[in-house]
Design goal:
Chains A, B: Pathway: Amino-acid biosynthesis. The structure is a homodimer of 277-residue chains. Chain A is of the alpha/beta class and 277 residues long. Chain A contains eleven helices and nine strands.
Chain lengths: 277, 277
């Protein structure tokens, strides 16, 4: 296939690396940053690239868009007439329901947009942090809509399994956003709140173990992307935050009441759940 | 030195392994569980061991107690007359202020109790999960009191640096408990609340990335130990939980008000803090 990757950031760049390794496809890159294109060429992970990609897109069987949700919509608008008939487009966006509804209004009918979400990433941004290793063993989610062709969904499935993902699941955009608000966005909100609640009275770094390190790793967050993701999944995320707050309040109440029995019960429950994971 | 380790669980067992590797000391083990003693002997990490340790303790220059806070106090009471004159005792307890006050009332005056806290551990318990590797590069905290001899404090410092810890800090018990409530106990409370807030509508495991995995690792918690640690540091932990709740509410408010600017600001702040860590 001729594949164009739009946005050679940490995810797009990782796709280029992983796909390039298969040595089965002709890969092109599009990125607004000329330096990024040069780096990708130097790494040999794209055959060619440029900052505005209509030429590549016209020839591509598959276009992988690794941009922020709002930027994808702009990109689709600008390139409505540029896609090859029958091409597959796919994204890597962490929110789906509202985004898909908006995107479906723009997509030309001669292409098939398969909405996907690789559950892999790095806390840093940019091609310098791209790595095909992040995909190894990770989950991939597809949120099909009624215009998708089964053969194209299967094609994307096979491709992502080939580049290292271990599991592909199909779910509705609504389910996707609900569960992602819990498994991905809530942890990010927690990590940010945890590190921001540091009163910095002490030299924190000298007093931490793995637990604090683990819980704050993702606090180094891409602020532009994640504010879009949070606001684009507002209601689900608020619900997830509130369920979490209820649980934290149960722990707090048990401490206030010096209720060892309730505390032990909460800890046992969490232990069983983690073991099951 | 002749060293007796009391409690060959994950921390005591790791001490036995790490000390044994130095090949400089004669190491004995005490554990209520006969099977644990047999395992430790089979591993060759103790010279001998038994379920009640007064014989070893009488001869030991250093006694490392790897028990829960309440069990340490019982152990001290039972062995008040058994310690060698001039021996050093040390603990590995995660809370200090109240605990030290209680312990100082029991400790015989001919021994020097150096209170310590290795900031290393495993989420699982028991000798099967002991490993000298967990100490590598970790922080060690000492909370000296006015009866400690400087030479004994230095002796413990050198010893823990020798078995892999990278940094030893001395702080007051009050400071210790304050900062530990934030860097260690709060993350555990969060991890437990996070996994317990899973509504389990979906097969969660298929929808997680590294973030959820990282944030819930420590949810597999030793319920007996951690309920003691939480309740033994009640006021500090409640304060840390509340500061965290304030920060999480700031994120929540920004989402409710669709206030992208505030959200971005909170994310930038957390990124800078994490980078600094």
């Amino acid at each position: 296939m001729i594949i164009t990757i739009v946005g050679l950031g940490v995810i797009g760049g990782s796709f280029a690396m992983a796909l390039n390794e298969l040595q089965e496809h002709e890969i092109y890159g599009v990125d607004v940053n000329k330096e990024t294109i040069d780096k990708a060429k130097k790494l040999g992970i794209i055959k060619d690239g440029c900052t505005s990609g209509s030429d590549f897109i016209r020839r591509s069987d598959l276009v992988i868009i690794g941009l922020y949700p709002s930027a994808i919509l702009n990109f689709l608008k600008e390139n409505q007439g540029n896609f090859k008939r029958g091409a597959i487009i796919t994204d890597v966006t962490g929110i789906k329901e509202t985004f898909i509804n908006e995107a479906l209004g723009i997509i030309p009918k001669e292409v098939d947009f398969i909405f996907g979400h690789p559950m892999a990433g790095r806390e840093k941004k940019g091609i310098d942090f791209a790595s095909k290793e992040v995909f190894k063993g990770a989950n991939y989610l597809l949120t099909p809509h009624n215009k998708n062709k089964e053969e194209n969904l299967s094609k994307i499935e096979s491709l992502v399994l080939k580049i290292g993902f271990s599991r592909v699941r199909r779910i509705t955009p609504r389910e996707h956003d609900k569960i992602i608000s819990f498994t991905s966005q809530l942890p990010h909100a927690i990590a940010v709140a945890l590190i921001n609640s540091d009163k910095e009275e002490f030299d924190t770094g000298a007093f931490i173990g793995d637990s604090y390190r683990d819980l704050t790793r993702i606090a180094n967050i891409n602020e532009g992307l994640w504010s879009e993701l949070f606001l684009g999944n507002k209601d689900n995320l608020l619900q997830s935050i509130e369920s979490f707050q209820d649980q934290l309040n149960s722990i707090k109440d048990a401490i206030i009441n010096e209720d060892r029995e309730s505390l032990t019960k909460l800890f046992k429950e969490s232990g069983i759940r983690r073991e099951k994971l």
